[in-house]
Amino acid sequence: MKYALVALILAGLGAQASALDLHGLKPDEVAVWAAPVEGGPPLASHRADEPVNPASTMKLLTGWAALNRLGPDYRWKTALLSAAPVEGGALKGDLYWLGGGDPRFDNGNLLSLLYSLRLRGIRQLDGRLLLDKRAFGKVGGADDFDDDAGRAFVVGPDAHLVNLKVAWLTFYRDGQSARVVLDPPLAGVEVRSELKPGGAEPCPDVRRFVSIVNDGRHVSVAGSLPQACDGQRAYVNVLEHDEFAGQDFAALWQALGGVGPLRVERGTAPAGARELATWQSQPLSVALADINKYSNNTMARTLFLTLGREAGGEDDTAAAAERVLRDELRHRGIADADALQLENGSGLSRRERVTARLLGEVLLDAARGPFAGEFIASLPIAATDGTLKKRFADLGPRLRMKTGTLDDVKALAGYWQAADGRRLAIVAIVNGPRAKSSGPALDALVSDLALSFNTAAMRPSAKP
To answer: What is the CATH number of the domain that holds 421?
Structure first.
């Protein structure tokens, strides 16, 4: 694909873009800022100080602050505690599950935690399972997404987030029968199946052949299942956080041969409770890659809250997280503009606002800082992975950018690396009713900036 180059006026020692080919975008619906990481004036600045909704490019601010404040090796801890004695393989009292707010905590991790409990010699829980949710106080919200209720991308954060609060439907073709199984087998979710065996056609995605209707407690599945769909899976968002965590715990505990608990409630572990089993997460850098490459809102919001918790914000964790992020901007010498508005730090927001310049300055600071490798590695690679897997085939892996999409928002922010190794930080954000169809124009604009940077870098006057 060929793109028109950005018209540049070179002046003095730096290059400043005086005109941009907006590829059909209206001047008042796009904000652009781009500058060399290795130093020099901005190469492009169009409405760079106008507050705009960044959609998921807001995750870059949260991830940058988390790396600086917590470090790339920060890990979340999940623990099972009790003050009750163990007699004959039975815990003679309540078990407390101290949720750590681990954004990547899944069924495999929970199974490992429960296996540690079994290794201790406990097979029966005679008391209650009490969810200790002290990790997060107020978690903030994501207003005006009621029409998306039940979809996985709007699942909120929680101290006991497990499997991103989704269960899996696994489809089987056994001979001439077709069936579906819920994994884990949650007691509060009923699966109704009207599946029929299908033919011999290929099955790239089981959802092409089955319909799934889900209200959170009842999942109805119907369709004709080809033989090639045997073993394929689809996820469903079911139950509320406490119910999901409690029923998931019980299902996996029983799978390990355990008995109990009596019931699941909330409670705070007493000071004298001892640790019976613990799970430590993989490092923050691994979570950050999941957040940015796949634009995971739930995980990003959980990371945002972790910033607040580590700053002592037990009562209002979301407010504490905002204070941390703004303080980090000031500490790093980045203007804490009045235009910056935060709701949950993930970009799943109708209210969050940032300027292209502020977001760009964060990119510059991240690329020049001690955790540049971890930060840049977390971004989708053009034509390779994540949300850029099918975009920018002409530019390839020298381009790494975070994407952002909402109703009326389309955004890109990240880095281009020229052939000589120099890097350009780029921010381009479209706001307006035409944003949904602006993808090709936005990609063309970013490509122009990248190719123009290459051209400028090859000029004799360009600094090495």
So the answer is: 3.40.710.10
The count of structural domains within the chain is 3
Q: Which residues of the chain have pLDDT under 50?
A: 1-18, 460-464
How, if at all, do strands 274-280 and 8-11 pair?
unpaired
- Provide the CB-side half-sphere exposure for 42 (13 A, CA): 19
- Residue 270 and residue 148 share a domain: yes
The single residue listed with the structure tokens 């804490």 is 336
Residue from 426, 430, 410, 428 nearest 418 by CA: 426
**Rg for the chain (alpha carbons), in Å?**
25
pLDDT of residue 336: 67
Percent of the chain with pLDDT over 70: 94
Cross-strand pairs, 341: 353
Handedness of CA 258, 261, 267, 271 (dihedral sign): negative
Neighbours of 207 (CB within 10 A): 14
In DSSP notation, 384-443 reads: TSGGGTTS-TTTGGGEEEEEEEETTEEEEEEEEE-TTS-EEEEEEEEESTTGGG-HHHHH
